[in-house]
Design goal:
Helix content is 21%, strand content 24%. The protein has 272 residues and is an alpha/beta fold. The strands form two sheets. The protein has a seven-stranded mixed β-sheet with strand order 6-5-4-3-2-1-13. Helix 6 crosses helix 7. The longest helix is centred in the C-terminal third of the chain and has 11 residues. The chain is globular, with a radius of gyration of 17 Å.
């Protein structure tokens, strides 16, 4: 499927109440359609020379998105050159991000009324969509000393009768599972699986949960569908999604892993 066929599919896809359609676009990039609302989360469209795969949808072709979410201020999550473009090509869209990075987002040409900064425990309603934020520990849970704002977030998106959890880049930390469980049943989640080690840390490649840790988080949350992410984009920071799926099935056989086979493949979920 090429990018124009994909965009046409997104436009034409009907999403009844109690369901959602998801499209994984590499790394932690996820598009979600809830009713008529299209949400882009951590989509990395910048054609950097060090990426292993080209952007599935070129930056100037992105259209029809109502909400852009970025979990933290790394290029492959808040893609500033692309946000500068989308601020113009999606003129009604809202942009949601960690409040700590608001000045950088405003510098992208996004007006105050469209720039929505959140921190741990924050919540915003955009049309029929509710977005809740909890802090992420990437690789540390490190609030800004002056403001107390967190540089990295995780999002829980609710709308059309479903609840979707996007973990961003994080390790598990004390109290995190309680925050998530308090929000109710999760119908689908995207979890990083690339892990961390000394070699990556020394070259400033900050870590995430391992596939085993993500599996155990899914095992406690019991989502309708668990999707592995952050495993494909950069040499030296890769993982195997089959390890995630196999371990999840072995340890929590009643849970359903998403078998990712291609970018832009529709993933249909229903509230349970």
């Amino acid at each position: 499927m090429n990018s124009q066929e994909f965009l046409q599919t997104v436009r034409e896809t009907k999403v009844p109440e109690g369901s959602a359609v998801l499209w994984w676009l590499g790394q932690m990039g996820l598009w979600v359609k809830l009713g008529d609302t299209v949400i882009s989360i951590d989509y990395f469209a910048n054609e950097r020379p060090d990426r292993r795969i080209a952007p599935p949808v070129p930056v100037h072709e992105v259209e029809g998105v109502s909400i852009f979410l970025g979990t933290h201020d790394h290029d492959d999550h808040i893609d500033h050159p692309s946000w500068q473009v989308w601020a113009k090509t999606c003129p009604e869209a809202r942009f949601v991000f960690p409040m700590l990075h608001k000045q950088k987002v405003l510098a992208d040409g996004i007006s105050e009324d469209r720039a929505i900064g959140l921190s741990d425990g924050g919540c915003v309603q955009i049309g029929d969509i509710t977005i809740r934020a909890i802090a992420a520990a990437h690789e540390f849970l490190d609030p800004d000393p002056g403001s107390g704002l967190y540089p990295a977030l995780q999002y829980i998106i609710e709308g059309n009768g479903v609840r979707i959890y996007h973990a961003g880049d994080t390790l598990r930390y004390e109290g995190m599972i309680g925050k998530l469980q308090a929000l109710g049943h999760i119908d689908a989640c995207l979890l990083p699986i690339n892990g961390r080690d000394a070699e990556r840390y020394l070259r400033n490649c900050i870590g995430n949960m391992t596939f085993q840790e993500s599996v155990d988080l899914a095992g406690e949350l019991k989502p309708g569908l668990a999707i592995p992410g952050h495993w494909d984009m950069f040499a030296g920071n890769l993982a195997d999604p089959n390890d995630f799926s196999t371990y999840l099935q072995a340890k929590y056989g009643d849970l359903v892993p998403c078998q990712i086979s291609d970018y832009m493949k529709p993933i249909v979920i229903h509230h349970q």
